[in-house]
Every structure is written in C-alpha cells, then in structure tokens.
Automatic annotation (TrEMBL):
<dbReference type="InterPro" id="IPR036661">
    <property type="entry name" value="Luciferase-like_sf"/>
</dbReference>
<feature type="domain" description="Luciferase-like">
    <location>
        <begin position="20"/>
        <end position="303"/>
    </location>
</feature>
<dbReference type="Pfam" id="PF00296">
    <property type="entry name" value="Bac_luciferase"/>
</dbReference>
<dbReference type="InterPro" id="IPR050766">
    <property type="entry name" value="Bact_Lucif_Oxidored"/>
</dbReference>
<keyword id="KW-0560">Oxidoreductase</keyword>
<dbReference type="GO" id="GO:0016491">
    <property type="term" value="F:oxidoreductase activity"/>
</dbReference>
<protein>
    <submittedName>
        <fullName>LLM class flavin-dependent oxidoreductase</fullName>
        <ecNumber>1.-.-.-</ecNumber>
    </submittedName>
</protein>
<dbReference type="InterPro" id="IPR011251">
    <property type="entry name" value="Luciferase-like_dom"/>
</dbReference>
<dbReference type="InterPro" id="IPR019949">
    <property type="entry name" value="CmoO-like"/>
</dbReference>
<comment type="similarity">
    <text>To bacterial alkanal monooxygenase alpha and beta chains.</text>
</comment>
Length: 334
C-alpha cells in the first residue's frame, strides 16, 4: 500500500533557456512550497557544477533558502558531493542549517564529482579524494555527533546537531558502505537503474544495526512524468528524453518544450540509450502511476520514494505533484 510510504522530491533546479537564474530559483521555491502544502516528506537538492540548465551548484545555500520559505517539509541535499568539500566546512554548514531549522535538515552524501573531470579538478585538485570517502563519512559523523572532549577539531556550529546522514549511490559501493555503517541508503534509479536490484539486496543483506537505525531504510529515486492521462504523460515525457539525449551528446541541459514525436531527433542507438537511462520512469495518469509504484514497492521493499519531476511548464510540474498524491490516495482506497 502506497499510503504507508512517504513521497519526497529530488530537484536539480532545472532552467529554461532564456530565463534568468532569479526567475528559475523563484519557480523552484514555489515548487517546494507546493510540495510542502501537499504533504511531501522531503525536498532535496542535488549538487551539480558547470552544467548550463542546472543551477543548484551552491547546494547548501539553496537548502537554507528553501527551508526558510517552507514550513514543514524536510529540506536537504541529494546530495553533497563530498570529494568537492572539506568535511569540516560541510559539518559547519549543515550544523548551522539544523540550528536554524531544527528537525528539518537532511545531509545526503555522494562520492561522485557532480561534473565532468575538468570541472572536478577545478573543484578539487586531488583526484583521489573519492577513495577516502568512507573515512570522510566517519569524520562527518563525528563532527556532527556528540561533543568529544578529546577532539582537537570541532564543528562549531555542528557538533551535537546529529544531522541525519544518508548515503547516495548508483553502484554497489555506497550500498555496501551504508550497510556497514548502519545508515539509510538512497539508490539513484532516476539516472542509473542498472545495479538497482543488486544494490538493494546487498544493502539489506549486509545491514548492521547502529545508533542511527535498527533496521535498513531504503529510499528509491525515480523519474516522474505524471499527467491527467497516460497519453498526455507520454507527450510531456519528451522533455526529459530531450534532456537525457543532450546529456549523452555533451550538450547544454536546458529544459525544452515537449514534442509530438522524438522521431528525427535521435538515432535508433540513442533512443535505446535514453530509454535505458529512463527505464524506471513512472509515467502516466493516476491509475498507471499507482500500479507501477505498487509493483516496485512490493518487489524491492521500498521504505520511501523520492522523485525527479522535470516538466517544461511550471503549472504542469506543480500539477504532477497533485496527480502523484492522487495516485497515493487511489492505492489507499483499493
């Protein structure tokens, strides 16, 4: 039953070509407020750099601003790409956020750069930082945990805020690490579905209870295209398909209007690649979405869903949230 599963949102702050950054950020705030009103559990922002069309590079700043513009919803990172940052700075930033918005801040962590290799080097000259990810997660846990009189380095603010840490991943590495540390785990099914079943099984089978969790907690990220009808959803989904196609071609990632057909815009091989990228997409009207989510939830034992929702028109994007919640109600009534 979907009624018992929290729904959350993952946002990349998508931008339409020709729009200003200010306009885009204001639309993102309105979108988060809509999610807050509808009862979504979390609103997370994903760190990306040097990608025209995606403007959430200053992730912690956006987390704080959106938390200040909403009332109830948890706000956090999905995620902070830890190799790009000092663990102490991350602890101080999120400790400050938690102090400003108690009980509403999440810290999701990833070990990818969130960019291409050249940009990654501009962010961090040590290209081996990702190899130290497990140790840096442990450092963050200590910096955000209880006061330690023997520690020479303290996060002020940060210590004793106990900001919830989540591990994000698209492979088996983070699944194994989350299991070992007894942390909640998020799989990036919105762009990398290949290892989904293996990662979930690995996480659940190897989970070790901790002072954070007594049992595994698994959240699945999925692409969402929700509309009044299945036919309209298929039409609206061409915005995401064009964006993934641009990503694969190394082009800029502006949101583009939907098209009646993708024929002529891609090759047969590109179509196959885009379809694989978006193979977990939850696309359709309320009934279809309900059915797809129920099947996925039962197969994988999902504790929470988090959705990307990259539609071209803000009105359609906001409406998709209503339709998603309608699907949840249909499930509870069936």
């Amino acid at each position: 039953m979907l009624s018992n599963i929290p729904f959350s949102l993952l946002d990349l702050t998508p931008m339409v070509k020709g729009a200003s950054v200010s306009e885009t950020l204001n639309k993102t705030i309105q979108y988060a407020q809509k999610a807050d009103q509808l009862g979504f559990n979390r609103f997370w922002l994903a760190e990306h750099h040097n990608m025209p069309g995606i403007i959430c590079s200053a992730t912690s700043i956006l987390v704080g601003h959106i938390a200040g513009k909403t009332e109830r919803i948890r706000v956090g990172s999905g995620g902070i790409m830890l190799p790009n940052h000092s663990t102490l700075v991350v602890a101080e930033q999120f400790g400050t956020l938690e102090s400003l918005y108690p009980g509403r801040i999440d810290l999701g962590l990833g070990r990818a750069p969130g960019s291409d290799s050249i940009t990654s080097q501009a962010l961090n000259s040590d290209m081996r930082r990702a190899d130290n990810f497990p140790n840096e997660v442990s450092e963050l846990q200590k910096l955000l945990g209880p006061y330690n009189s023997t520690s020479q380095i303290r996060a002020i603010p940060g210590e004793n805020t106990n900001v919830p840490i989540w591990l994000l991943g698209s492979s088996l590495f983070s699944a194994q690490l989350a299991a070992e540390k007894g942390l909640p785990y998020v799989f990036a099914g919105h762009f990398a579905p290949r290892f989904l079943h293996d990662a979930v099984a690995l996480y659940k089978q190897n989970f070790k209870p901790s002072n954070v969790l007594s049992q595994p907690y698994f959240m699945l990220a999925l692409p969402l295209v929700a509309a009044e009808t299945d036919q309209e959803a298929q039409y609206l989904s061409t915005t995401s398909k064009q964006r993934v196609l641009a990503l694969m071609r190394g082009k800029e990632l502006w949101l583009t209007p939907p098209v009646e057909t993708m024929d002529g815009l891609w090759t047969a091989q590109e179509k196959q690649q885009v379809d694989s990228f978006l193979s977990l997409s939850v696309t359709g009207g309320p009934g279809s979405i309900k059915h797809k989510l129920e099947v996925i939830a039962e197969q994988l034992g999902v504790d929470e869903f988090i959705f990307t929702n990259d539609l071209y028109e803000p009105e359609k994007r906001n409406k998709a949230l209503e339709i998603l919640m309608e699907a949840k109600k249909l499930s509870s009534n069936s």
